Amino acid sequence: MANTMEEFEALLNESFEMDTPEEGSVVKGKVIAIEAGQAIIDVGYKMEGRVDLKEFANPGEAPEIAVGDEVEVYLRAAENARGEAVISREMARREEAWDRLEKAYADDQRVEGAIFGRVKGGFTVDLGGAVAFLPGSQVDVRPVRDAGPLMGLKQPFQILKMDRRRGNIVVSRRAILEESRAEQRAEVIGNLTEGQTVDGVVKNITEYGAFVDLGGVDGLLHVTDMAWRRVNHPNEILNIGETVKVQVIKINKDTHRISLGMKQLQEDPWDLVGAKYPLESVHTGRVTNITDYGAFVELEPGVEGLVHVSEMSWTKKNVHPGKIVSTSQEVEVMVLEIDGAKRRVSLGLKQTMRNPWEVFAETHPEGTEVEGEVKNITEFGLFIGLPGDIDGMVHLSDLSWDERGEDAIQNYRKGDMVKAVVSEVDIDKERISLSIKALGGDKFAEAVGGVKRGSVITVNVTAIEDGGIEVEYEGMKSFIRRSDLSRDRADQRPERFSVGDKVDVRVTNVDSKTRRLGLSIKAREIAEEKEAVEQYGSSDSGASLGDILGAALKGDK
C-alpha cells in the first residue's frame, strides 16, 4: 500500500512538473471568450489569462482571432493578484519570430516584413513579431524623400545583423533592390545594341550631363552629346522626370557603362555649313564664350566660329577679347575659313568694318592738316591720336626746321594738342607719318621754287666775315666762302663787298635737307667765260681770249 502511495506521489509530482508550464516559456492555449477588447485564453491546468486583442494584429491591421482558435502565448507568471495567468501573445510571437529569423540569417535568406514607424535615422519594421531597425540609407538605392507609400506594405528584407541578447535586428530593403536591379540591368544591357534609339527617363542632372533610366539601367548622356550647339548646363535642355529619346552610343560590357546621345538623332548642321556660309560672306552671330585667344560666335545652333584675337579690331592690338565684345552680344562677322573635318570656322570681326587706315588715307590726303593729342613720346618721335582710333607719328626730324629733333621734342608733353601735316600714309604697314615743321608750308621750298643748279640769281650781302660773305635770297640765308668770291685770287677778299650790295651768283647746289643753297661768284665768272668762248671763239679761232672777252663785253653793253 505504502508502495502504491509513493508511486502515486511520484506520478503526481511528475504530472505537475510535466503539466505545470514553466514561467518564461511559450505554451499553447485556446481562446474561450472575447470581451472588452481582450481574448480570454485557457492555457490548461486550470489557468486562464487575458491578452489585448491588438497583440493578435500586425501593425495597422485588424486583429485576426476567434473563439476556439488555438494560439501560442508566452507565460510570464502563473498567477497574478486576480488569480489569473499573466500571458502575452506578443512575447510568444517574438520568441517564435527570433527562432525563425535566426535560421533565416544563418541561411542568408530574405525575410518578410512591413515598415510601420519612423524613428531617428530610419524606420521600424515588423518582421512578424520581432521589431527591426531599417536605417534611412538602406531604404532604397537612391535617397527617398517620402517613405509614406512604403509604410505597411508586406515586402522582403535582408537581415544585415542581429543580436538576440540585446534584442537588436538591422535590416535592409536596398540590398534586395540592388540584387534585382543587377539582374534586371544585365537583362536590359543584353537587349541593347550600339546605335539603337531608346526612350528613357531623366533621373538626375549634373553639371557635366544627365543620367537617364532606360528601364532598370542608367546611361550617361554627356552635355556635349545633348545638342549640336554649345550647352552651358544640362538644365537648359532637360528636366528631371522627363522622357527623352536617346541613341545608345557605346556600351562598355565590363563596367556596364552606357553612353547616350541626343544630338545624334538630329541633323548635323555642319553638313550644310559650306553652302550656307561661303568665304567672305558676312553674318550676324551671338557671342557665346570669350577666352584669352578670342571669342566664340554662334552662327546658328550647333555652328560656332572663332574670332581670333588678331581678327577682332584694327586698332586694339594687345587687348583681351572681353574688352572688345561681351557674352551674348550680337555681332557682325565675316567668314574667313572653314575646316569641315575639324568642324571649325574662322571668323573676322574687323573685316566687317573698314580698315581705318584706308579711310584715313581717303579723307586725309598728303598735305592735309590734322590736330590730335600727344599720346606717347619716344626717343624717335611723337605719337599723335587721329580720327578712327589710330595714331600718327611725327619723327624727330619732322619737328622743326631750325632746331635739332632731340632739342625740339623737349617742347612737347603727353596730352598736348598739336597740329601737324600728313606726309605719308602706308595702309599695309598701318603707318601714318606726320610733320609738324611742314605746317604753314615749306618756306625754303617756296623761296627756291624756280631755282635749280646752274641758275644765276641776285642776292643781297647781309654780313662780311673773314671766311667769306653772308648773303640772303628771298629770306633764305647762305654763305659764300672766300674761295668762291672770285676767279682771281686777288679779288677773293671779302672786304671788297659791303653790306647791302647786290651780287649776281651762280647756284652750285640746292640741298633741301639742310635747306641751304650753295652759291658761288667764281662759278658764275667761269661759266660766263665758257659761254663767251663758245659764242665768239668758234668763228675766229686765232683771236686771243682778251679779244673775245672784249667783244663779249661790248655785246653786253
From TrEMBL:
Residue ranges occupied by any S1 motif domain in the UniProt entry: 24-90, 108-174, 195-263, 280-350, 367-437, 454-522
Keyword Amino-acid biosynthesis attributed: no
Family matches, as SMART domains: S1 (SM00316)
Any single GO CC term annotated in Swiss-Prot or TrEMBL for this entry: ribosome
Keywords linked to the UniProt accession: Repeat, Ribonucleoprotein, Ribosomal protein, RNA-binding
Domain of life: Bacteria
Family the entry assigns: Belongs to the bacterial ribosomal protein bS1 family.
Described purpose of this protein according to its UniProt entry: Binds mRNA; thus facilitating recognition of the initiation point. It is needed to translate mRNA with a short Shine-Dalgarno (SD) purine-rich sequence.
Name of the protein this chain belongs to: 30S ribosomal protein S1
Species: Ruegeria marisflavi
Encoding gene, per UniProt annotation: rpsA
